[in-house]
Specification:
The protein is α/β, with parallel strands linked by helices and 459 residues long. It contains 14 helices and 19 strands. The strands form five sheets. It has a six-stranded parallel sheet, with helices on both faces. A five-stranded mixed barrel has the order 15-16-17-19-18.
């Protein structure tokens, strides 16, 4: 499971040997999907830089292009396929350009076959446990000049690795993502993640803590601990203990985490969030449905009352917490009454933000074979109705913040030139006076919209 240091050093040697080949050339990594994918993308780019390539965001400048893909919904996959198709002309103009695809789509057998047959101009594919092998992959592709696949066919229980000591090219100088565990053992009936990410595996706590401490000493202000199910972390300590230690270093910073499964969100985790000043007061706790029958069909391993108990305890015990969630509407066989159970749960909890998704069948999952598909028009109606309910709740929650003073981490100016930042609860805050990106400041809130706050900078 853990890649040996000998292998890491061997890949570093390959990267060094490629530096003359890629001297003066550029690489682009375009990432789709979740924060875990973004963290993977930073490591892939780090490997490319180690090979002598310079990062670029312009396709026309790139000599190596890698699309780091997401498979969580059909729309995401179709978008990537459309982008790949649009890159064909660039490849025809510059056939020497190397084009690759990685991530969750590359791990799906039917997508591998489709790409090999319908997109022959894509030079290589590699799976979600091959990031540490990027230098070797490039070397093999350069020598063969044939379309190559680097994807494991191991079963879920044997699939997945941990690699320490690989280079990282972070996309921010003040925000950082730190993966603490990988994979998933939950097998929710609608979800493809376990099949494309492998079984749960946790990094050693010493490695995580060393990385976080280094980031704090390097001036990072917002550090996100990541995992497909982050609070099922099982190193030599549990996740609440790891989070508490990550918040114990000297310095002015926040540490936050994504994403939690309700069955593993323990009272100890809530206690750490409540007591530790450096733990950001944002808890993302997906519930997916407010109806017990649908939760069972989803294989979520909790019921409505158990979720409500945990969500309301978080709001009671963690001062000024921002509670957000995910929900799926239009799951197979969901009745109108069962959908309204979800609406009532949303009203009862009072989420600050809700990420609402229309059910999308994923090839290879249990739900794909379920009968009782909800017509798309009905799914859209439910989506719209729930969004309206949530918008009202979000407005009410933000109205309650008017007159309060929030600590905000500046993100510089937005696309309109307005100074902006994020609160501890991950709320967008605009203000009147510019503050350098990556600095904390105090803002008195004067205005509230559904998903953004506005205020005046305090000296």
């Amino acid at each position: 499971m853990k890649i040996t240091q000998q292998e890491i050093l061997a890949q570093a040697a390959v990267a060094e040997s490629l530096r003359p080949v890629f001297a003066g050339k550029k690489a682009m990594v375009r990432t789709f999907g979740c924060q875990q994918n973004e963290a993977d993308g930073e490591r892939i780019l780090g490997e490319l830089v180690a090979c002598g390539l310079t990062p670029t965001e312009e396709l026309a400048e790139a000599d190596v292009v890698i699309l780091n893909t997401c498979a969580i919904r059909e729309h995401a996959e179709q978008r990537v396929l459309g982008i790949i198709g649009s890159m064909k002309k660039e490849k025809e103009k510059r056939p020497q350009m190397l084009m690759g695809m990685c991530g969750c789509m590359a791990q799906e057998p039917h997508r591998q076959e489709q790409l090999m047959q319908s997109y022959p101009f894509v030079d290589f594919l590699f799976g979600t446990d091959m990031h540490h092998r990027v230098p070797g992959i490039l070397k093999e592709v350069l020598s063969s000049r044939r379309q190559k696949q680097f994807v494991t066919d191991l079963p879920h229980s044997e699939f997945g690795v941990i690699s320490e000591g690989t280079p990282v090219c972070r996309d921010s100088a003040y925000k950082a993502k730190v993966s603490v565990m990988y994979g998933c053992n939950n097998f929710c009936s609608y979800c493809i993640v376990p099949y494309v990410r492998g079984h749960e595996r946790s990094r050693d706590s010493a490695e995580v803590l060393a990385e976080v401490e280094g980031l704090v000493k390097g001036g990072y202000k917002d550090i996100m601990l990541l995992g497909q199910n982050v609070n099922s972390y099982r190193g030599d300590m549990d996740f609440p203990a790891l989070l508490e230690k990550c918040a114990s270093f000297e310095g002015e910073y926040w540490v936050r985490f994504m994403t939690s499964h309700p069955k593993d969100a323990s009272p100890a985790l809530v206690r750490v969030m409540a007591e530790q000043q450096r733990v950001a007061k944002h808890f993302h706790l997906p519930f997916q449905s407010g109806n017990d029958r649908i939760l069972s069909a989803m294989n979520r391993k909790y019921n409505r009352e158990q979720y409500l108990e945990k969500a309301l305890a978080i709001k009671e015990r963690v001062k000024d917490v921002s509670l957000t969630s995910d929900v799926i509407v239009g799951f197979p066989t969901e009745t109108e009454k069962e959908f309204l159970d979800t609406v009532e749960l949303v009203k009862q909890v009072g989420f600050d933000m809700l990420y609402t998704f229309i059910y999308s069948p994923r090839k290879g999952t249990v739900a794909e074979k379920m009968e009782g598909r909800i017509p798309h028009e009905e799914q859209v109606r439910r989506f719209s109705y729930l969004s309206e309910v949530q918008n009202e709740i979000a407005q009410k929650n933000n109205d309650a913040l008017v007159g309060k003073v929030l600590t905000v981490l500046s993100e510089g100016a937005n696309e309109k030139g307005v100074p902006t930042g994020r609160s501890s609860g991950n709320k967008i805050v605009t203000f009147d006076t510019p503050v350098p990106r990556g600095q904390f400041c105090k803002v008195e809130i004067h205005t509230a919209k559904q998903y953004a706050l506005g205020g005046k900078l305090l000296k």
